UniProtKB/TrEMBL annotation:
Residue ranges of every copy of the Histidine kinase domain listed in the record: 233-437
GO molecular function: ATP binding; phosphorelay sensor kinase activity
Protein name, entry field: histidine kinase
PANTHER family: SENSOR HISTIDINE KINASE TRCS, SENSOR HISTIDINE KINASE YKOH
InterPro entries for this protein: HAMP_dom (IPR003660), HATPase_C_sf (IPR036890), HATPase_dom (IPR003594), His_kinase_dom (IPR005467), HisK_dim/P_dom (IPR003661), HisK_dim/P_sf (IPR036097), Sig_transdc_His_kin-like_C (IPR004358), TCS_sensor_his_kinase (IPR050428)
Organism: Paenibacillus azoreducens
Transmembrane segment boundaries: 12-31, 149-173
Enzyme Commission number: 2.7.13.3
Broad enzyme group: transferase
Amino acid sequence: MRTIRGRIFTSLIIVMIFSVLTTVFLFNHLIDEMLMDQARNQLRLQMTKAIDIIEGGDLEDLSTEDLELRFRDRMFYADFFVVDASDKIVAAGEDDMVGGKIHVSMSPKDHFFTLDGQKMMYTHQRLNKGLRIIVYTPMDILKQISGRVLRVSLLSIVISFAVIFVVGLWFVWKTTRPLQQLKEAVSKFNPKHRFPGIPQGDTSEIGQLINTFSSMSERIQKQHQQQIEFLQNVSHELRTPLMSIQGYASAVKDQVVTVEHGLHVVTAESQRLIQMVDRLLQLTRMETLQEEWKLTEVDLQDMMEHVHQLIAPAAADRNIQSALNAASLEMAIPAEQIFQVAMNFMQNAVRYASHEIKLSLEEIPGGFRICVDDDGPGVPVQERDSVFDRYYTGQSGITGIGLAICKQIADRLGAGISCTESPLGGARFCFEYGQGGHHA
């Protein structure tokens, strides 16, 4: 049985058989012990009764009919015989036994003897004049009673286990049915085509597994769609500078533009291509490699001033006023990665701002917070969790790589990254770093 259902069925059958056999064995042993104890007690009671009869008269007054044995709703009669010091039978419930000889141990540990090939349970007592009385009953009687009780008990056990087995089969089918449906749904899954979806699971562990697969399939389809859009965007963005390079190269060749102007455009567009490819390689490297980022003691205020200076020309081209508010703070940090986060935030702000952007650095317990505000259209609330996705691009976005790189850096450093509403009216992007959370 290679399927889970088959294995559970097989395991259930094995457990049921083992349980039935064990229960029957133990129950039969228990019944035998109970009947044996009951038989000993009854024989002792009949022994007391026999002695009372003998002491009130003589041996001839005692008969088998006086020695009643009751087991449940059935009545039997015990038998007896009296022997002298030489083990000769002087009185017995059966007259043909009188005069014969038989040796029965008087040890308190012995409870059985054999008579005419049959096993007998007995009890004994000494009488006057060296006589002994033995009261006994055949073990066959106990076996009959034990068999009757065992048959009734077995019937109830079989019925009980049959009900349990049916319920178990139903439970196994009910449990494995969702797994079978999940298997069929997953086998049809193809991220390239519209997927009908995986059945909704319940609150059980299997139901939670089904819901997890359903969520995973949705993420895979979403990622596949984002990859297609990303490739389309990247292809478009790469095609634009390539076309510019090709066009100006042809223009220089045809002497439509000066060589100096053509080379300037080709150089600028080539640099743009290199930057885009470098960003793609960097994002891929961070997702696939776990390289160690070295900590460097730096002045974060100087770093923010450097970021502000580098972004100033781009801001001036769009008539954007930029402001810096940075506290003096020195700390050992992965400087290159933190610098890149600040630059990406500022480039993003310049791209979307209307008139103003602001870069701020403040100290927090155990670390610092970098925030960049703009007065642009902002990010809709429902999109703020998606803005850091690898392929997300806003209205003025290019490839959706910059903020995705920031998110990768934050995740690697155990830092916090967020997108909220800015006091300037646009978007605020914050990066919160604490040395206790660093594990790059």
